[in-house]
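Weekly sync notes, structure subgroup
Attendees: PM, AL, DS (notes)

Item 1: joint prediction request from the bench team. They want all six components modeled as one assembly rather than separately. Inputs as received:
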Amino acid sequence: MMRKYQRQRHRVLQIVTKLLTPFVLLFALYVQFHGDYGPGGGFQAGVIFAAAFIIHGLIFGVDKTRLVLSPGVIRVLMAFGVLLYALTGVAGMLLGGNFLDYNVLAPSALSGQHWGIFAVELGVGITVTSVMISLFYSFASSRR
Amino acid sequence: MLNFLALYNYWVVIVLMMAGLYIMIARHNLVKKLIGLSIFQTSIFYLYISMGKVSGGTAPILIGKISHEKEKAGSATSAAAEQITTVVYSNPLPHVLILTAIVVGVATTAVGLALIVRINEEYGSIEEDDIRAMEQRDPV
Amino acid sequence: MIEQLLIVVLLTFLVVCTIGIIYLRDLLAAVILLGIYSLTAAGIFVVMDAVDVAFTEAAVGAGISTILLLGCLSHTEHVQKPQRHNNYWALGMVSVTGILLIYGTLDMPRYGEALSPANSHPDLAQRFINESAGETGVPNIVTSVLASYRGYDTLGETVVVFSAGIAVLALLGRKRRRVDDDENEDVTNPELASSASDKSDDRGTNV
Amino acid sequence: MFGVVIIALLITMAMAISRALLGPTIYDRILGVNSFGTKTVLLIAAYGFLTGRPEFLDIAIVYALINFIGTVAVLKFFEYHDLGSGAYQEDDY
Amino acid sequence: MNFFDQVPALQIAVPLIGAPVCVLLRNGRAAWAVTQFCSVICTLLSCMLVAATRDGTVIRYELGSWSAPSGIEYYVDIVNASVLLVVSFISAIVCLYAYRGAEKEIQQDKHYLFYTGWLLCITGLLGIVITGDAFNAFVFLEISSLATYLLISLGPDRNSLTAAFRYLIMGSIGASFILIGVGFLFAATGSLNMADISARIPIADSPRTVLVAFSFLTVGLMIKAAIFPLHAWLANAYHYAPVTVTALLSGTATKVSLYLLLRFFFNVFGIQFSFGQMLLNYVLLPAAIAGFVLMSVVALYQSDLRRMLAYSSVAQIGYIVAGICLVSPLGISAGIVHIINHALIKSALFMATGCIVYRLGHAHIQSLGGMAKQMPITTAAFIASGLSLIGVPLTAGFISKFNLIAAMLEQGWWIGAALILASSLMATLYIGRVVEIMIFRKPRTSTGTLEVNEAPMQMLIPLWLLIALSIVFGIFGNETLSIASAGAERLLTGPLAPALVPESAYLSTGAGQ
Amino acid sequence: MNPLWTLLPPLAVIPFILFFGEKRRNLRELSIIVAGFVLLFINNRIYNDVVQGASPESGSLAMMGELSMKLSAEPIGNLFALLASFLWVITTVYSIGYMRSHKEINQTRFYICFAIAIAAVMSAAYADNLLTLFIAYEALTLSTLPLVTHAGTDAARQGGKTYIRLLMGTSIGLLMPAVIWTFVLTGTTDFEAGGILGPEIGTTTLAILAGLYVFGIGKAAIMPFHRWLPAAMVAPTPVSALLHAVAVVKTGVFALLKIATYTFGVDTLAASGAGEWILWIATFTVLASSLIAFTKDNLKARLAYSTVSQLSYIIIAALLASSTAITGGAMHIVMHGFAKITLFFCAGAILVAAHKTLISELDGLGKTMPITMVAFTIGSLGIIGLPPASGLWSKLMIAQGTLDNGYIWIIAVLMLSTLLNIGYLLVIPLRAFFKPLPAPQSEDNHHSHDSTHASDESYDLLSSNSMQAAGWQEAPAPSLWAIVMTSSVVILLFFYPAPLVELLEQVQWR
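Output from the run, pasted for the record:
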């Protein structure tokens, strides 16, 4: 009886969260890719992306969120983001420029810059997302 | 007097900064120390951002249509160049620096908090005094 | 005018929050005040045209930081013990530092000064504002500087985040849960400090 | 017009902050911080229109989101003293 | 792509890419292999840089191909090339040692995280050293700091956690001070590039701001470098960290901060400003001297070997700073030589201590009795590196001490020279005390014998490699001295870029027109 | 011949010592004696070169900028090297008897350290500059430390501690700054004829510098840095012999002579009077240590204080800054070296054969150990400087040197000290020969007094001593042979000091 009451009590949050999460994710993607034109960028997008998972974890319990996005995957993504960034830089080196030189990534300097910035922002976003989620997992893991 | 007003921002920031530093040094609660660190660092960010503000300026996101088509890149430049003659932008550089610094700050806070959780597990306390007493009782 | 008023009032909020944090012994309240502090600071950043910074400060300072602090507090006591004595030594040191800083600001470029060295440097501030769009094709100067001109800094920043992730993983990773499994839950109780110290012993053997 | 709005917002923010600071109960503080966050969202929106760059409403959205998450987190912490528990599992009770 | 042009970037890129690779591998052994590989590659790369810059060449590498003040650049001359070499070499050697050395101290399932932290630490340290951008140095300082907090906290007993936390607080204060300093410099000059700053400081019309920037950078770096009154974090950190980590840090971390201090004092603010106007030598020299005298005394009274060596480190840092404060070619080169030599010596000492801890589980000085019988090679290594620390001839320590005293006497600082000698004598006492116990004291165990074997070969070989190197540098001291005096010459040339003429600065100002 | 060759025999013999080890100890010791003879031969070749006025030198190894490590032969050094290499052979022979009959532990280690010490002495003897000298000096300190602490007992540890603390302390605290200061003042540390420190440096600086050198070379045992010498008495007797006659103390005074001659230059030193204040301390040391020697009943301790006193003779000789005095000092290194090593060998022989360490126990020992006691008499005469022993010549030359620079009062001190020498040294053979053998209960006493030897187990003399038949209880044959050898050299040098004089005539004073 009591439990049922509890369940009822959290129903609103649960539904709101379920509704909200896709929009938050969408917003994160918007911030990620619209960062060139407005405020935002990889870092902010990563945080917002992580925020979607955090609110999920807060409402449904972090164990449930772990099922959605397992710590193993998080760990890989964490490393992948950094690698993506660094390898973009190395790619510049291999194509004849300096480290992190985007001009050489594509035939024209401007589109090279475009791709370069896209790639590194993505790298930042992935790392920040996964680290933030990982932090949340670590701190919120159930004490009892 | 004018000087005083113009520098008022800086001074408040310095007061905040020192308050943060004071919390870090003088408070014996470990979490409080980290909160102090946050305040300290945030005030430093504020110091930087103040330097980049230009009176009458606006956020350093170029106003006007900039084409992101690759072919039109050349003309976009000239369009942007026209714009900047009329609009004053604040200095973007401190913003970039502070974006980095914020991230660094939160990373430090996260590591510090993780350490606190572990310290609490091992010592059963997050008070500097208690921990020190315990360390003295059983030096390793 | 409104702008200056906003800044002054918001700064006052910051000071009020800080004083609250210094004196409040309830850490939860301190965390809440820190959240307000960050939101206010982000507001000031907006007023100072640093929209990206405001964005980040809000997301990180008010969001992630608060959640991490709460996560930490959920493992620990959340009332600070009364401190027996005030630390006058620290106060003195901090005051000296503050006075030195204020001395340093006396001939700093005034707030909003367009001709200050920082804002007029031909190769940095001016170049970014005037040339970046042409050189990178990105209208958000902050993004272009962040990802391209100073992309190396941002790489460093990403690595910092990564380091923090690694550090927290190492500190609170799998092992901790194992401890939870076989230890009693009441580790926050200071009376059980001895049991906590026992645990440090089996950390070595528990590999 | 926007100036008046901003001044009004500042005053309400001051009131919210005083509640958050003075307490006395934790609910007062939570409510204080929540309404403070809401006012900030409004403030930023208003300021964006005042300076003629309303596209920065993005930031306001983030604030709203963060404010929501923060409040949920604080409440959850206060209720269960734990952030990660699944609120519906038996072992919580 | 010309490979040699890319060497500076590879110096950072290699360990930086190695770190996430370690995480992806999730295997302790594989992570070790990656770390060892990266360290060795870094060592080779920095050897190339030293070779290239030895004749006074300056290598400037523009990241992202953005020209210098706008983008970030690497600025490599003989001063930082040699520090790069020290850092990566120590890392390579200690990593070899860590293969066995870390296995007991660190839990098996955390090994890969440990090595990730290791690589991140190295990335950060190398990044600080190589960069020519003040803010970038701060960013990499934080990378290395975070990794260091992690490495220290992995220590085998719970005190390592508090040690890491205290270091975190002190380190963050230090880093924040550096950030403030860089900020004020930015306010005064509008630039972040060290060379550009050095050109603009003379025309900055806000001397107080520069002064405050200077003070904050100095204090921040003093904290990071553990210079005497601000050294408190070091003892705990070195004591409770895994010994392997201590061996790594003692050779690298403080040295890097000292390098940064050198760079700022001499090449960014300029000698005239730092020492003429700010009277830095009158502030820092007493601190350095008090440091090496007091800390040697403190080291005498330690009951734990690691702690003793930690305090001795603070004392040795005092020597380096004292050398620098003389602002003479001889003094600075003595300082730089001691940066190199002390890295070798102290790492070797901590590695020897690590061997003891590996077998004994602790390093209480009083219970080291019988060590010479049970672990003769380790004991011999400890004695050999201890002699080097004292400054006995034919060891690296002698070279640094000889030059330091010569520099002191050259400037007529009799008292300084005498105090260096006094502190050397105390080093004799505290090293001698340990050696005496190791050789003569009967073991304290109930059976009267110490039931331990010699440390494994994988630990002893790198240890003796370092010692051999310190002896080689003690005999062929010119190898290090020539690098150091080239470095001193470089530092004494003053600002990195010629000062701008004020008019041109105004002319080029385009804001608000 | 390149003086670098002198390092070869002592270093090359180490692998042999290790290889033969305890198992084949005869071969082990044979290899050392062979090495000793090779070394003697090399030094002799160098002697031939030097006597003809040549100065063979080695290549130099650049160490720090201009500073390098280099060896070169000059007369004083060659003299010292000859002495040391000759005594190495003899000491080894003596050790064979002593160490075996005394059943010392770790003999292999003992011989290795001994060899290293000899190598260090060689490099000190032929050092071409202060830096090399300093390095050799430190190497000698470190390599003799295991010898001092050989027994491993608490007393040995205590003695070793005093030894290392005083010697390392003075060398790092005083000698090193002196070397560096010299380098800073002159830009070189080379030994040059006539010295590198000119009078332009100023008397005060020179006086301080001289003080730093004299006190910094703790091995010269000037008061108050003499404590290590009696403390090092805990070592086995061959080591004491090495320390007090050959290697350590002689390296100290030798270094001082060399510094006086080639760093200061006799002219500078004499003209500035920089050494005068130390002369007072040195003369005080001479007298005070003679008086202390009087009070010591332990034979080795008395000999140690006698050494302290004699060393200050040489310090005085160095500081007098006259060529005659320095020549006398160099001769005294040799004369005193042979005489004192004889005395120590005798002390060791008495310990091994009769288990006696106290002078008061020696009554009537002349009956059972006549050879030893005769040698002891000769040694004593050598120290005192009475014919037919060689000490006379060196003492005379030092006395002559005092007159050169007008320090007449020093002659008085020397006379007084000689009288004291007679008092505390000659009394010992007198007791041994003319006092009757005491009642046998003194056998029990020696255990309570003899705290210096841990492994002083009762040793069955009957089984190993071949001279038992004659009613003598002498030490084992090798030891006895060594004693005879050194004591005869003491006499030989009285009648035939010419080679030494010839060599020392080649010293370039300016």
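Discussion: The radius of gyration of chain E is 22 Å.
Action: AL to compare against the crosslinking data before next sync.
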